[in-house]
Input
Amino acid sequence: MPELPEVETTVRGLTPVLHGQRLTLVEPRRADLRKAIPVDLRQRMQGAVVTGLGRRAKYGMIDTDRGDTMIFHLGMSGRWRVDPADLLVHDHLLIETAVGRRLALNDPRRFGFLDLLPTAELPAYAAFAAMGPEPLGDDLTAAGLMRALEGRSAPIKAMLLDQRIVAGLGNIYVCEALHMAGIAPSRAAGQISLGRLERLVPAIRTVLLAAIEAGGSTLRDFAAPDGELGYFSKQFLVYGREGEACACGGPVHRQTQAGRSTFWCPRCQRN
Output
């Protein structure tokens, strides 16, 4: 599933194509993806000028001069295609601009979705209202994270995947950040010291920024809007490397936590 770096890469790829442009065509090519596409999406978006693009957690956002924001989620296999020569069967939304650029939202598995709401209502949007701080923003601090984890006996890995604790973190990047910070994924979240959290917060940022710089991680079907694949997977220190040697020389282990694979090094990451 595309995670935060993949969505950020997508938004950055869409920005030079869409920002400041009038949308001359907005055409949903089916009625639903994971859920129904808003029936008034064409009416409200077509003819509007794009005034900004952004991201919240794993959601992309496109703002218009009509005071609306279209939210997109890429699901398991979604991606935007820029200036496609031909439309494909799984291109479910087509956008064209006044200068002749074309975008197609492609989603073979249809686990993504589209939504549309007034921009002023974004803070109350159901998916956003209970989210924790953005991991790349100033609101994520070691002290704040310690308060959020206080008294929690659940493993730190599970807590970091809880969107109410930190917004947008996914399995791959949590494994990598915990390894960088030297924290065992099974350690009770409420027992982690402030000193360790002061290592964890910058580790989260470092891993995410490195992934964004590399264009994300190529897993399954993800590609950036320009068709380029992400290469951060070639930098993984532990994720997907069960049985291989960690940089410290110890073997990388894998365990299952809440149905998800966790990769870690017992020598580097101690309880």
